[in-house]
Write a structure and sequence with these properties.
Blueprint: H1 3-25, H2 29-54, H3 59-85, H4 88-110, H5 117-134, H6 146-171, H7 176-198, H8 201-230, H9 235-241, H10 244-255, H11 263-282
Helix pairs in contact: 1-8, 1-10, 2-7, 2-8, 3-6, 3-7, 4-5, 4-6, 4-9, 4-10, 5-11, 7-8, 9-11, 10-11
C-alpha cells in the first residue's frame, strides 16, 4: 500500500472519531450535525458552482450522485438517533464494523479488487474486534439499548451504501471536494425539519460554537481525506484501515465520556491495530 494513502486513511480515522465525540457531547445531536455541515456548505458553495458548470456527466453518473445524496441524508438522520439512544463506545464500533465489512466485501465484487490471504485475516480480525468492542453478543441483551442497536445497524448499511456509490462517482471524474459538498447539501436538507422543530438552534450555537466551528473542518475533512486515499489504492484495502477511528473512539469514551469499559475493549483495540498493520503491509 502506498504510504501516502495509508497516512490519509489514518488521519481520516482520527478526525472521524473526534467529530463523532463532539456530536455525542452536544446538546441536540441533529442541530449540532446540521450546524457543522451548514458552515462547510456555505464555504464550499463557490467552488461547487464552478466545478458543476465545467462538468459533463452522463445520466448514469447523475443517478449515482442522487443515490449517494439520498443515502447520506438517511445516514445523518440515523446517526443522530444512534447517539441519542446509545453510548458512543457501543454504537460507534458496531456501525463502523458493519460498514467496513460490507464495504470491503462488496468492493471485491463490484470493482473487481483483490485482497491477499493476509489481508483477509487482517480484515477478519478488525471486524471481529469491532463487534466485540460494541459489547453486543448473540443471545445477550444486557446493557444493550434496542433502539440504539437498530439505528447503528442502519447507519452501518448507509456507510457501506454511500461509500461504494461515491467510489463509482470518483471513477467518473468527479472531484473529492465536489462530493463533500454534495454530502453537505444532503445533510442540510435531511436535518432542516428536525432542527426547526427542536427550537434548539440558538442554544446549541451559544454553548457549543467552538466545537461547531472545529467540527465543520473535521467532519468533511475526515471523509475528504478518505476520498483522496480512495483514488490511490483499492477500496477493499482502505475501508477496514479507516476503522482505526474506533480505537480512538474507544479511548475517547474511556478518558473523556467516562463510559464504562473493561480490559476486553483494550485488547480488542490492540487487535484492530494489528489487523490494520497486517492489511497495510501485506493486504
Amino acid at each position: 500500500m502506498e504510504l501516502l494513502a495509508l497516512l490519509l486513511v489514518l488521519s481520516s480515522g482520527l478526525t472521524h472519531a473526534l467529530w463523532n465525540l463532539f456530536t455525542k457531547r452536544s446538546i441536540h445531536k441533529s442541530v449540532f450535525l446540521w450546524c457543522i455541515h451548514s458552515v462547510t456548505l456555505i464555504i464550499l458553495m463557490p467552488y461547487f458552482w464552478i466545478e458543476m458548470s465545467q462538468l459533463t456527466l452522463s445520466p448514469k453518473v447523475y443517478g449515482f450522485i442522487l443515490l449517494s445524496m439520498t443515502i447520506q441524508g438517511g445516514y445523518i438522520l440515523l446517526l443522530s438517533k444512534a447517539y441519542t439512544h446509545g453510548d458512543m463506545s457501543q454504537v460507534y464500533p458496531f456501525m463502523r464494523g458493519l460498514g467496513a465489512m460490507l464495504t470491503s466485501l462488496c468492493s471485491l465484487v463490484l470493482f473487481h479488487e483483490q485482497m491477499s490471504t493476509a489481508g483477509v485475516l487482517g480484515l477478519s480480525a478488525i471486524i471481529f474486534s469491532l463487534f466485540a468492542l460494541s459489547g453486543i453478543r448473540a443471545g445477550s441483551h444486557h446493557n444493550v439499548n434496542g433502539k440504539a442497536l437498530i439505528y447503528a445497524c442502519l447507519v452501518g448499511l448507509c456507510i457501506s451504501g454511500y461509500t461504494l456509490t461515491d467510489k463509482a462517482i470518483l471513477d467518473a471524474g468527479v472531484s473529492p471536494v465536489l462530493l463533500i459538498q454534495l454530502s453537505n447539501i444532503s445533510y442540510f436538507i435531511a436535518l432542516i425539519i428536525p432542527v426547526l422543530r427542536s427550537g434548539q438552534l440558538k442554544r446549541e450555537w451559544s454553548v457549543n460554537w467552538r466545537t461547531i466551528l472545529l467540527g465543520s473542518v473535521l467532519a468533511p475533512g475526515s471523509y475528504l481525506l478518505f476520498l483522496f486515499a480512495m483514488r490511490l489504492t483499492p477500496l477493499a484495502h482502505i475501508a477496514p484501515i479507516r476503522e482505526i477511528s474506533t480505537v480512538f473512539g474507544t479511548i475517547f469514551g474511556i478518558l473523556i465520556l467516562r463510559e464504562q469499559q473493561g480490559s476486553r475493549r483494550i485488547v480488542m483495540s490492540a487487535l484492530i491495530t494489528l489487523g490494520i498493520i497486517t492489511i497495510a503491509i501485506w493486504g
